[in-house]
Write a structure and sequence with these properties.
CATH architecture of the largest domain in chain A: 2-Layer Sandwich
Number of strands of chain A: 10
Mean pLDDT of chain A: 96
Oligomer: homodimer
GO molecular function, one term (chains A, B): RNA binding
Low-confidence stretches of chain A: none
Domain Pseudouridine synthase I TruA alpha/beta (chains A, B): 9-104, 144-246
Distance between the termini of chain A: 18 Å
Function (chains A, B): Formation of pseudouridine at positions 38, 39 and 40 in the anticodon stem and loop of transfer RNAs.
CATH class of the largest domain in chain A: Alpha Beta
Largest interface: A-B, 17 and 17 residues
Helix content of chain A: 10-25%
Number of domains of chain A: 2
Organism (chains A, B): Cerasibacillus terrae
Structural class of chain A: alpha+beta
Binding site for substrate (chains A, B): 111
């Protein structure tokens, strides 16, 4: 068996999220269907670095799968892209060592969240940004971001619906917020993220940007370990899994 | 009765074109449904500057309608946007004189066509550009554009399926082609365009860009007044109705 690692991009708009579900169109479902065709009917399971929710996009998600076939990496890329609809694109296929696992070998993930801060709605961006027409103080949001960097318990910024049992301590290496024309782009880079964490972080930071909270309130929210303390969950369509980083193998 | 002129923008992806059709989602159908709600059940007909096909976008299309209601223009804009889904946006509403007609008063139309000239497919742009991965000589296409400017019979660049009887003579004030990073943007400004004309112009210019035709061949194609002489119809999703220009009223 060979292990194949792929870097993929997808527009999350027309998917019920990443994870396979019966009777729903999912990223995993579409790629596994393509893999099954390539394997002449044999089911092949794929493993992602992590799931993404309905409407969430990926500029560079990583997956792996094992195969009895002997194809070169360019042929894997071509065969999969030929079978997939155009809202998923296999950017790269590589051979990976047996020890590689898309989820467990990941060292770092990077997410971007794009807010379009314009008074008028733009119909072309509706599925790709959060259109927020009100004034935002980016300097205040930048200041608030600094309180997120480092190792913290992010219970307050994880969905109360999360059933995950383990530790909610994560390390954020970078949390930034920049204005680029009418776009406000949030970047989060860390060793892992809890369910809905980036969207709750953004929802809370937007309240800072509107003057509803002080930047320093982020410390208090973290300390309370209570989802009720943080802001709304920002909508899915502004969120992009931007990159997944692995160590040298 | 008051006449209201609106400048609207729409993402053509999820519409079966502009014109109302039974059992299909169309731009006209959606706006007329909203107008009917505002008029408490009374059907209101709207008139566009012209139709657009399925998948074709509008950055600034113009429509008008007549109404017995007395609303200020900001209220028209708000009421319509509140009822419409987010793939149509009313950018501006204005009161227009009785003599105004969105189609017959139009002096000039501008279309843009966007080609994404990159080797790798981009899933986020699939509905908004024509993804063309092969080499394009933009200088040759610019040169070819010059042959299109002026007053010509555009029979060779109109769909053979067109049932329009009248003259196929149109004046193109501007035909240009520019590279902007990996995008190649075609701009056409003229006093009117025939059915599929912009898409056939682009399909033919792309053949010039690939070296399959000489720039000067455009003159011969025009002279022959025969659709068989021109190139393929470029796909709908790269086409934008960019602006409609009216005289001072």
């Amino acid at each position: 068996m060979e292990k194949i690692k792929c870097t993929i991009s997808y527009d999350g708009t027309n998917f019920s999220g990443f994870q396979i579900q019966p009777h729903k169109r999912t990223v995993q479902g579409e790629i596994e269907k393509a893999l099954q065709k390539i394997h002449k009917g044999q089911a092949i399971r794929l493993y992602p670095s992590g799931r993404t929710d309905a409407g969430v996009h990926a500029v560079a998600q990583t997956i792996h799968f094992e195969t009895p076939l002997q194809l070169d990496v360019e042929s894997w890329k071509k065969a999969l892209n030929a079978l997939l609809k155009k809202d998923i694109y296999i950017k790269q296929a590589e051979k990976a060592p047996a020890s590689f696992h898309a989820r467990f070998s990941a060292l770092e993930k990077e997410y971007h969240y794009i807010v379009l801060n314009e008074a008028e709605l733009n119909p072309f961006r509706r599925n790709y940004v959060y259109q927020f027409p009100y004034y935002l103080n980016v300097l205040k949001m930048e200041e608030a971001c600094k309180y997120l960097e480092g190792k913290h318990d992010f219970t307050s910024f994880s969905s109360a619906r999360s059933t995950a049992k383990g530790s909610k301590v994560r390390t954020i290496y970078e949390a930034t917020c920049k204005r680029n024309g009418s776009e406000v782009i949030f970047t989060f880079r860390g060793n892992g993220f809890l369910y809905h964490m980036v969207r709750i972080l953004v929802g809370t930071l937007l309240e800072v940007g509107q003057g509803k909270r002080e930047p320093s309130s982020i410390s208090d929210i973290l300390a309370k370990k209570d989802r009720q303390q943080s802001g709304k969950t920002a909508p899915a369509q502004g969120l992009y899994l931007w990159n997944v980083i692995y160590g040298a193998e």
